[in-house]
Amino acid sequence: MSGFEAPTGIELDLGNLTAFDKRIYEGDEMESTTQAVQALVTAIFSLPAENTEDGKIVPLPRPSFALPREKPIPRERELTKWEKFAKEKGIQKRKRDRLVLDEATGEYVARYGRRSKNSVAQDVIIPHKEGMGDDYDPFAEKRKEKKQRIQENKKKQAANIRAGQKSRGGNINPIQALDVAKRGPSGKKFLPKRGLKDALAVVQRSTASAGKFDKKVQNEPKQVSRGVKRKFETVVPRAGLGKEKERSQKIAERVLLQNH
């Protein structure tokens, strides 16, 4: 803790780097502000410092004034079906090697992707199944099975996105929604009209000019700017002093009303 004692009427909160002047002034308020800032700076420099690799630092004490949160506490992410199953069965996630041994050739090949162990292109010879006619093509059958597995995985992914959307109260990433929508009939049924509009709005602003100089396609909706524009406070001390005083008074009145 700091050994510095602030003047009477000035309360310091070094954890939040804040000074509160509770004295009543009838004259120039700049004098009160100057004394409060000087007391705050003096108290900070009286704190014990520590030498580190990045230089000298001063650990601040715990704040004495609890600031309210601007936004609500985020919800916990909903577990996927696999995560729930792994948690119930006690399955630990481990990193698998990228290469696996192919017993047929005795060489290491990729686990997934092109020329992987399970790739159709790697199968030079496939045993003919009994009962199949002469026109049976085992290579075409394997390609068909692979496409079916891909479609099943896409449906499961869309279901996971729907579950995540439901747990978050209906909010969904528009780009993620657009990605699901172009994957097939199941995705298109899932994506609402609002999701397409949100995805289009994101894409329209994705270029360097934020879509201002982009060529529009036929019947493309007009780009509408969304969100609240940021407002920057003035950097001129005297010019913005009146507004800053008024804003501070409103905040103080709101806090005092909530405490009573």
Q: Order the strands across the largest sheet as they lie in space.
A: 1-2
Question: What's the overall average pLDDT, rounded?
Answer: 75
Termini separation comes to 31 Å
Along the chain, the helix and strand elements come as EEHEEHEEHHHHH
Whole-number radius of gyration? 32 Å
- Our estimate of the beta-strand percent is 5-15%
Element layout with pairings:
Blueprint: E1 10-13, E2 18-21, H1 29-45, E3 50-52, E4 55-57, H2 81-89, E5 99-102, E6 107-110, H3 138-167, H4 174-181, H5 185-190, H6 193-204, H7 241-259
Antiparallel strand pairs: 1-2, 3-4, 5-6
Biased composition (Basic and acidic residues): 139-155
Protein name: Ribosome biogenesis regulatory protein
Function: Involved in ribosomal large subunit assembly.
